Amino acid sequence: MLPMEKRHNFYEISERVGFTLRRLMAGRLLGMFVEGIGTWLLLMWAGVPMAALLGLLTGLLAFIPNIGAVISGLLMVAVGFSAGTEQGFWAIAIYLIVQNVDGYIIMPYVARKTVDLAPALVLAAQLMFGALFGILGLFLADPIVAAIKTTLQEFSKNKAARKGA
Questions:
Q1: Which of 12, 18, 87, 127 has the most other CB atoms within 10 Å of its CB?
Q2: DSSP string, 100-155
Q3: Mean of pLDDT over the chain
Q4: Does residue 163 surpass a pLDDT of 90?
């Protein structure tokens, strides 16, 4: 469907976008793993029941931007307070610690190393895509923005190379 002379550029851009999306997914999986294991170990240390299950749920829900952290936090606090007041307060503290470490240290580092997207751009895209397409839009906002950014960078690089040649 592409003219022969345009196929090479298309394949280069497609390869670059695929590489970027694989890095984005690897970064997201790393964040999910750290959140899940960190939550599990800290909840187990604090004596909160079902620590492994809560860690697993926290890790899985970390895939959903913005909403997943709130849902896992509510579950964690509810289970903590069901075991006692002390465990409930520990669950709140652990939720805050894990989310802050993940949100302010791990994910910005991973995002900068993988796709180099501005946080304001990602948040705006998540809000816009979430409002337009619901939960599916929220899931796909980051990959779509990363793919668009990579494509535009490659177009710009190709155009500069043609001007310079």
A1: 87
A2: HHIIIIIHHHHHHHHT---HHHHHHHHHHHHHHHHHHHHHHHHHHHHHHHHHHHHH
A3: 88
A4: no
